[in-house]
Amino acid sequence: MKIAIITPYPPIKGGISKESEIIYTNVRDKYEVSILSFSRLYPKFLYPSDSQYDFSMKIDNRNIKYYIDILNPISWFKVSNYILKNNFSHVIFRYWNPFFIPLYLFINWRIKSKKNNIKISCICDNIFPHETFFIEKYFIKKFFLNINNFLVMSDDSEFKLKKLVGNNSKIVKSFLPLKENLKSSISKKDACEKLKIKNPPKLLLLFFGFIRDYKGLDILINALKNLKNLDIKLLIAGESYIKTNKIKDLINNNNLSDMVIWHEKYIPNDEINLYFSASDLVVLPYKKISQSGIIPMAYHFNKIVVCSNLPSFTDHVIEKTNWIFF
Predict the structure, then answer these.
(1) Overall number of domains in the chain
(2) CB 212 within 8 A of CB 291
(3) 23 lies in the same domain as 152
(4) Are residues 248 and 236 in contact, defined by beta-carbon separation less than 8 angstroms?
């Protein structure tokens, strides 16, 4: 079996990129696998920080091809030609946002028009995007109709996908991979010292990852105002896709500056263990979600998860047993 996986891959930032690395390292010794990744994932104006890349990660570049520039259709030809010339038996698309469907449709069309025997699969991190746009459902359905089988990570995604493709036998559901490529945990005291958190509280809450409206950080900050008499602080670790003043004003208006610590930056792989080791609870107050890579990350560090009571979370978080809902 010869497999091509079209996906973001380090040094591209983000959870999907990191998870693709974990998948690749687990299957590359069993199958002949090539990763076809991006030299540029987004136009600069769509990305909130200065760089889309985390060059601190150590990357094994065996069979990793950074061929795809989302803004350059010539690169779309390049990657489809690579697939056709190298006789892959299977091609896997990593799908999470309709923004990439024109690229995926083009590659799929070229493959099917030249070699119809190649099996096309899709790993679906989302079905519909968290930030919606006009006529998205039409393009999503058009792309999915040409896929042989799908992998989803939640009941919610499975339910939405069945409505689009109408064939249950095409769909497999699995959990996101555990973050086995992360550093080990250390003591809370040592982690706080390394993160320069002075006088750590008895209970340190962690909100981790890119900040977007749908992740509900505003809900969490508003909830803190009812806990001022307790030895609790919130550690926010991540750069923002929304206006930072919106978050800072919320903190200041609720007089929470002493309770909130915000490390406003992208957290590189070699620092992730510090944030989870320093914290006592990982909080996911999301308003909507298909699935989250933060939960398996919390599992990796044996942390309690406090999360919204959403279908995509109830698949993997057990109420009143090891984990807590609100």
Answers:
(1) 2
(2) no
(3) yes
(4) no
* CA 138 to centroid of chain Cα atoms: 24
Same domain assignment for residues 30 and 120: yes
Give dist(CA 144, CA 165) in Å, integer.
Answer: 7
- Collapsing DSSP to helix, strand or coil, 158 comes out as helix
Residues 14 and 141 in one domain: yes
On whether both 146 and 208 belong to a single domain, the answer is no
Residue 290: closest CA among 45, 148, 73, 124: 124
Predicted local confidence at residue 15, as pLDDT? 85
Same domain, 227 and 108: no
Q: Which domain holds residue 317?
A: 188-325
What is the pLDDT at residue 133? 61
Sign (positive/negative) of CA torsion 71, 72, 75, 76? Answer: positive
Contact at 8 Å (CB) between 269 and 238?
A: no
- Residue 218, φ and ψ in degrees, nearest 5: -60, -35
Same-domain pairing of 28 and 146 = yes
Query: Which residue did the predictor score with more confidence, 82 or 326?
Result: 82
Domain match, 28 and 162 both: yes
- Whole-structure pTM over 0.85, yes or no? no
List phi, psi (to 5°) of 45: -70, -15
In the three-class reduction of DSSP (H, G, I as helix; E, B as strand; rest coil), residue 108 is classed as helix
The whole-number pLDDT of residue 322 equals 47
Give pLDDT tens digits for 36-80. Answer: 999 998 887 666 666 788 777 677 777 899 999 999 999 999 999
Range 256-268 average pLDDT: 93
CA dist list (Å): 279 to 15, 95, 206, 215, 275 = 20, 32, 6, 19, 6
Q: Is 288 exposed, middle or buried (0-12, 13-18, 19+ CB in 10 A)?
A: middle
Tell me: do 15 and 135 sit in the same domain.
yes
Q: Is residue 178 part of a domain?
A: no
Question: What's the pLDDT band for 104 if we cut at 50, 70, 90?
Answer: very high
